[in-house]
Amino acid sequence: MRAWAVVETGKPLQEIELPTPEPQGAQVLLEVTHAGVCHSDLHIWEGEYDLGSRGKMRLTDRGVVLPLAMGHEIVGRVVKLGPEAEGQGVKVGDVRLVYPWVGCGKCAACQRDEENMCLTPRSLGVYQNGGYATHVLATHVKHLVDIQGLDPALAATYACSGVTVYSAVNKLMPMDPEEPIVLVGAGGLGLNAIAILKALGHRRICIVDVDQKKLDAAREEGATDAVLVSGDDTTKRILDACGGPVAGVVDLVNGTQTARFAFDALRKGGKLVQVGLFGGELSIPLPLMPIRALTVQGSYVGNVKELRALIDIAKQGKIPPIPITREPLRNADAALNRLREGKVVGRIVLTAEAA
After folding, report:
1. Model confidence, pTM
2. What's the CATH number where 210 sits?
3. By the 8 A CB rule, do 350 and 328 touch?
């Protein structure tokens, strides 16, 4: 198979030939038709995360091995089934969304279908080859989700961008629909978060970003309030837009600056859900945590049960589509660089030539 892979961190992706996997057990081989380009791909490509005063965490420390075909938002056409995948509701020719956040398959978390919490992760596009390739190997037939009736390019984004924000916003629920929820970041995650909140019936959504063009797109998606980050008064701008301190913030950027103003915007009993991987650190005044009964919680992607629930909502037509830009798979490197330069509104989805 052909892959557009990270061969050396920080260097252009290279088109290389890799052995086409042979499905074993309950595995399924698919021909990739669509692969989303996610911001977390940039961190993998760069090879490290910023841990603030603790320095850098390198991807090699997490067990990432190069060369690697990234891409974890994958839709593909089934081309071959492992012997144990036969008769499990999937046949050759079917188009399926691939759940990528897989684990060891044996621990208690994996047995609960909560593989994103597995202590020995094997995520597609991170620890094993993903969607920036002509073929991908799904580790189990249960990780294939039927997307019949949905635009496959949009559906691909639900495997990460969609399920990540779905899991994150549900960590704030239940909440009165008129209670402002603040979303930090108006990229692909932010636009999907707005769409999903609207699908869940939430009506007050405040979006925060440094880019007015992205804020305009968020308004079109359904955000009721928008705050442009400028200077040191972002917390005040959020409070002014929302009518005071807020009950819930989802930080889809999660850098030192955004975490600070997001935390400072919380009311008593408020919760900050941290999703993004931009990096840095947050210094918290410890007495405020109990005095104001605050919660700071990380949220890592989502599990396959949440992905199936999200796709069910999408099939009901309740989730407004986000802007999608389609690019051929061979343009993976250029697409990644456009994302790095902040030139993407919504999501780029790489497509096979015939898709």
Report:
1. 0.95
2. 3.40.50.720
3. yes
